[in-house]
Design goal:
4 helices, elongated, single chain, mainly alpha, 136 residues
Length: 136
């Protein structure tokens, strides 16, 4: 597996962390499907799940942010919106070029790096704020 979930990725907000774990697992499933030669149908099915789950996860985070008046909501949402466009572009490229080893590498590295950086930066700050508001 290319991406390992560990405590350095835990925001401390159970719901967010559980969803992040699912995103990391889905990313690893794409890599595994490619490495095991499961075929393009399985790869695209897994990518579709990852894309849909990402959108659901972003919706969850954004609802928490608006519920607790997170001061950086608009910036955080913009990052989400930009990433959705990136994933859409990568998916189109993968469809056009086919799920070659190189394309799978580009897709998973781009998504994986963005996800880990986003979790460790923006999501840590957001989760700390939400947790502080939930505790009140």
């Amino acid at each position: 597996m290319a991406y390992q979930w560990d405590s350095s990725l835990e925001t401390g907000h159970e719901k967010i962390d559980n969803q992040h774990k699912q995103l990391v697992a889905a990313l690893n499933n794409i890599i595994e499907a490619s490495q095991l030669g499961k075929g393009k149908d399985e790869i695209f099915k897994t990518l579709d799940f990852l894309t849909g789950y990402t959108i659901m996860h972003f919706t969850t985070e954004e609802k928490l942010q608006t519920q607790y008046d997170y001061p950086d909501y608009l910036i955080h949402k913009r990052y989400h919106d930009e990433f959705k466009v990136t994933v859409g572009d990568l998916t189109k490229r993968l469809v056009a070029e086919g799920p070659t080893e190189e394309m799978i590498g580009i897709v998973t590295t781009t998504i994986g790096n963005w996800l880990l950086n986003h979790i460790k930066g923006d999501d840590f700050r957001m989760a700390a704020y939400v947790k502080s508001q939930e505790a009140q």
